[in-house]
Amino acid sequence: MSIRIPSRRLGQPALKALRQPSSTHWNSTSHITRRHISNPFRRKTDEDANQKPLDISNPLLEKYLESKKQAEKKGGTPRPEPQPPTLPSKSIFSMEKPSKQEEEDMQERQDAELMALKLDPDPASRRRWERKMVIRGVRRRGRLTAPQKLMRTERQSLYKSPFLATSVKKLTKVVNQIAGKTVEEALVQLRFSKKKVAQDVFKGLEIARDEAIAGRGMGLGARNGEKGKGTEIELNNGKKKIVHDQMEMYVDQAWVGKGEYDMSPEYRARGRVNMLTHKSTSFSILLKEEATRMRISDEIKKKRENRKLWVALPDRPITAQRQYCLW
């Protein structure tokens, strides 16, 4: 092997060659910062002895941190409560403090104003309606009509379901099964029904029952839950039924109504599009108590007892008499 060294380098002394870089080409390495190593064993000078350590303590911060630790130990950060402004009693700007009764009256008025937004949204129409009812009562001399007496003596509850994704025909078959049955019997019928929509009717009937109990006080029964002596009643269809609790709820009416419908496209071959109709239906349930059926049964019996006896040849006057025969 042969080493290629410039002739000018051969003529230089060896020490000078060591001090110079071994390569004559440009070195493109990045510059690396160097830190000087401090000597911890160096002697301290007089300047170092005269320097004082910096005081970085903050008494306000230390006091705040100490109070925060104590508050956390006690169980919570104390919050300053807003205090009402105080003025001397002799000042002309001071206000008299309301009494306890005045504060309660003010709170009741505020509650009534807030509740009136929902309970009485149109007071003018309400006053006109009340005036109309008073005039009607004066004209009738306080006498009530038969429907008004029934509304005051008998309780009922109406429930309407949201729209269901089914047709009127399918829902009518299920609703007709529960009409005329007690609530418990209707729930049993819906629970074991094979119809898909029967589960929605089951949930709706449960909601209707709960609303009737909570809102109307229906179906509470006797105080101790004891069943009384059975009473035989006659239904509209002529069947007999024994009633043990006159407050037991039953489904008086159940009907179905059409709802909204949506349209969606069905894309077919050759660019044809069929529009599909998605129907929706709702059902309504009217719940009443067995006391209503007992009253209807008594009315049927009285009507049967008061009807006239049928006779084959009734005694009635002869009409259209002529002097001669008409044949």
UniProtKB/TrEMBL annotation:
Entry-linked Pfam families: Ribosomal_L22
Alphabetized Gene3D superfamilies for the sequence: Ribosomal protein L22/L17
Gene Ontology BP, a term: translation
The keyword Ribosomal protein is annotated on this UniProt entry: yes
A GO MF term: structural constituent of ribosome
Listed Polar residues bias regions: 20-31
Keyword presence, Nucleotidyltransferase: no
Cross-referenced InterPro entries: Ribosomal_uL22, Ribosomal_uL22_bac/org-type, Ribosomal_uL22_sf
GO CC terms in record: large ribosomal subunit
Region: Disordered, residue numbers: 1-109
Ranges of Basic and acidic residues composition bias in the record: 63-75, 97-109
Alphabetical UniProt keywords: Ribonucleoprotein, Ribosomal protein
Domain of life: Eukaryota
Family indicated by similarity: Belongs to the universal ribosomal protein uL22 family.
Name the record gives this protein: Ribosomal protein L22
